[in-house]
Amino acid sequence: MKNPPETMFESAFAEDTYKGLTSYPKYLLSKYIYDKRGDKLFQKIMDMPEYYLTSSEFDIIEQNAHSIIKSFSSKSGFDLIELGAGDGKKTKIILNKLVDENIEFNYLPVDISQNVLDELKESLRNEIPEVNVEVQQGTYFKTLEKLSEYNTRKKVIIVLGSNIGNLNHKEAVDFLGNIAEAMSEEDMLFMGFDQKKHPQKILDAYNDSEGITEDFNKNLLVRINNELEGEFDIDNFLHWETYDPETGTAKSFLVSKKQQNINIKKIGLEVNFEAWESIHTEISQKYDDSIVNWLADEAGLSVEKSFQDRENCYKNYIFRR
Ligand code: AVJ
90 by DSSP, 3-state: which? Predict the structure, then answer.
């Protein structure tokens, strides 16, 4: 039934899919949701009323823009490095404010997708042509490493959208630690963390009535079908969300509605699903001040300041080394 390991896999996606679906319990990695279709679905998620994260962070940045950029500024100018830039909707508030106040800076959006960077650059040329943009295609760490090597200017690193929430605490400490290593004493990190709140509000954000999040989650199966010659019938799985208020972890699953065997030809795998067996696909971690302080401490960072929205849904923190 399980031919490979000896065979070389054609891609990391193929290998990780093989590993995840031959594990018990089964899992798939959420980073693979984001192909072209996944990117589009995530854009739609960010526009849903249930997905409060976007508007909460937007409000925080809008209401505190002055104080945020005041802490960023330095006499000799600085580099604003954004990890996982996306469409830049929230960053543009900061960019506009910096331009308005004649502050000297370069904007360096980092993303793995050149396509995302091209679109961002184009939209900035139209909307805020005063900004000096230098897009950086690559992984976060390779880029940070490169930038900290030849770069002597003050660095302000920003990570918005509670993107860290897809990492478990150990991975989050490694992520923050890697950023900390690239930082010198004057540098700072500005980062968004979705907060613990009424569990129903969290469940609703990850299980909308229109089924957009369901389609987003199921895009993993669509990708396996398209890229690995999988034979999943998408309708035979349901999207399931849980939230544990003790750990603050929201988890997404795909649950098999019946016993079924699924062929995935390109990785030479036939996967058996028992009725109601799950595939774990994503975590979306929620935080409070004590968790954030602990993560920062473990990574060699300290919280200098934080900003929150009126409803206490979401927080942005400024860290220093
Ligand atoms: C992009 C990781 C912040 O976990 O809230 C949205 C991804 N998943 N709806 C999140 C996501 C389902 C999102 N992050």
Answer: coil
Give dist(CA 41, CA 96) in Å, integer.
Answer: 27
pLDDT in tens, 6-25: 568 999 999 999 999 999 99
Find the 120 Cα to ligand 1 centroid distance in Å: 20
Structure ipTM:
0.99
**What are 76-124's pLDDT values in tens digits?**
899 999 998 878 899 999 999 999 999 999 999 999 888 889 999 999 9
User: Residue 278 pairs with which residues in a beta bridge?
Assistant: 255
CA distance 45 to 56: 14
CA 218 to ligand 1 center in whole angstroms: 14
DSSP 2: B
3-state secondary structure of 163: helix
Structure tokens belonging to residue 72: 């960023």
AA identity, residue 15: E
Percent of the chain with pLDDT over 70: 98
CB 82 within 8 A of CB 160: yes
Ligand 1 atom, smallest distance to 53 CA = 5
Q: Mean pLDDT for the chain?
A: 94
Q: What is the pLDDT of residues 122-172, one digit of tens each?
A: 999 999 999 999 999 988 888 888 888 877 789 999 999 999 999 999 999
Rounded (5°) CA angle 247-250-256: 125
Nearest CA to ligand 1 atom 2: 163
Cα(182) to ligand 1 centroid in Å equals 26
pTM to 2 decimal places:
0.94
Residue identifier of the C-alpha nearest atom 14 of ligand 1: 163
Dihedral pair phi/psi, residue 311, rounded to 5°: -85, 5
Which residue's alpha carbon is at the smallest distance from atom 5 of ligand 1?
284
Give the atom of ligand 1 at the shortest distance from the alpha carbon of 284.
Answer: 4
Measured CA to CA, the distance from residue 47 to residue 160 in angstroms comes to 16
Torsion-angle region of 267 (φ positive above 0: left; ψ -120 to 50: alpha; else: beta)? alpha
The Cα 148–Cα 143 span in angstroms is 9
